[in-house]
Amino acid sequence: MKLFYTLIFLIVLSLPSKSQQFIWANSYDISNSNEVAALAIDINGNTIISGVHNASAFLPYTGNCYIHKTNQEGDAIWTEYMLGDIQIGDMATIENSIVIIGQSNGAFSFQGEQYGGLEPFLFLMKIDSDGNLQWFHMDETKYGANTNLQVGEQGNIAIQVRGQFNLGDWIWIMDTDGNILNTKEISATQSMIVDLAYFNDKVYLNGGFSGPSSIIIDTVFMPLPNIESATFVLALNEELIAEWASVDTTINNRDGRIEVNSSGIFVYEEVLNPPFNLISAMKKFSFDGELLIEVKAPVFSNAISLYPDMSLTSNSLGLMVENDFNFNSHKVMLFDLDLNLTSEKVIEGNSDLYTGQIANNGNDFFIAHVFSGNLNFDNEVSLPYNGSGKLPYIARVQMPLVTAVPDILPTKEGLSVYPSPADKIITVRLSEKPSSPVNLNIIDLRGNKMIRETTSEMITEIDISMLPSGVYIMNAILTNGKTLRKKILVR
Length: 491
Prior knowledge:
Layout: H1 2-14, E1 21-27, E2 38-41, E3 47-52, E4 63-70, E5 76-94, E6 97-104, E7 108-110, E8 113-115, E9 121-127, E10 133-139, E11 142-151, E12 157-163, E13 169-174, E14 180-187, E15 191-199, E16 202-209, E17 215-217, E18 220-222, E19 229-236, E20 242-250, E21 257-261, E22 264-273, E23 277-285, E24 291-296, E25 309-312, E26 317-322, E27 329-335, E28 341-348, E29 357-361, E30 364-371, E31 375-377, E32 381-383, E33 391-398, E34 415-418, E35 425-430, E36 438-444, E37 449-455, E38 459-463, E39 470-477, E40 483-490
Antiparallel strand pairs: 1-33, 2-3, 3-4, 4-5, 5-6, 5-7, 6-9, 7-8, 9-10, 11-12, 12-13, 13-14, 15-16, 16-19, 17-18, 19-20, 21-22, 22-23, 23-24, 25-26, 26-27, 27-28, 28-31, 29-30, 30-33, 31-32, 34-35, 35-38, 36-37, 36-39, 39-40
């Protein structure tokens, strides 16, 4: 039996990888959908989109909002509506639950209940897998339209909120029950955070500022350039104390994006090459702030803001951007973790000014946007348009199977997993007792997270009896950002 599984394993590793391709695209009957403002995917691979619909055509979009959930094949499961004068800021998932942040310009109703009063307020709400409200948080002293949130490995939520009148930035750390655990004021007036990442309990921010002076966050100095404005990357530790910042020159970095995993910190931002040459820069930083790689993203123009979105898997970085001036072409660019462009997937057809949204489940990417004419997804999938006004869509880019996964074993930090093949229980052994909790993830060859555990011990037993037979990867994510990996055979 051991020989049989060894042969299967070798066959899997020797199969030629299949290129990335769109495998489906579905549209949804949500009338006059102004936007897809947020996209998230739950632990079961279900996809959730939200945004404003039936509002005026003028920015910013405010009005009634939809929350729409589909299964892994893009088939609709349910749709819920928030009725009021609302803007969606961001959305994320915790296991099967959904967390949404936004701004309401007065009271709104959800499932027959009213929330808020006459005054504008930031809202944050968590709903379960069936769309039912679990908790609701509101703050009349904050502004929720240009906000971001991300869920960490332990389930806590990192949130970037704006001050009243859209001035200044604060960071909140909240638990899964909606309790605020920690807060941090970045700047009361000067900064403009545009994106946030949360990894190993540390917060990473991308944003910009234009003066009238330089900024000091704790002991970290961020200088204002001599010409134009600053774009920055800022790292906060577990206590939300600034550790380091990287500053560049820009005209307006309102479209910056940041993603983080164990490989490093990945940033998209618009930087200025003097005198007035805008560059859409892709950057990779180490966890101590060293700029490792910087390349120019192959976007179609440097003359306009591209409203991009970015998503990161264990081995790929996806960027969705506008692809022409007429809003009838968009592009998904895929990079490896050294920022080499590996693929460009073009979506042709009448769409919208905004680029749309991109997220991932395992190694596969999902995109969502609105459209008002037939779409062609890189000559692999087509999506006919039937209706009036803009409709939202979701499409899935399937990535090739992992064809080789090297073990990563730093000199002083090792990982062993036994037995292999296994069918009921595996034992995970670290080379030494960790000083803080280690995340243990069992991932299939498409990158789907099958089992997740946390340990503070050298030796941990994990029940794998529910896993189908096959090849899996054990990831041990340490608090210093390093990842240890081992292959597992399950019979």
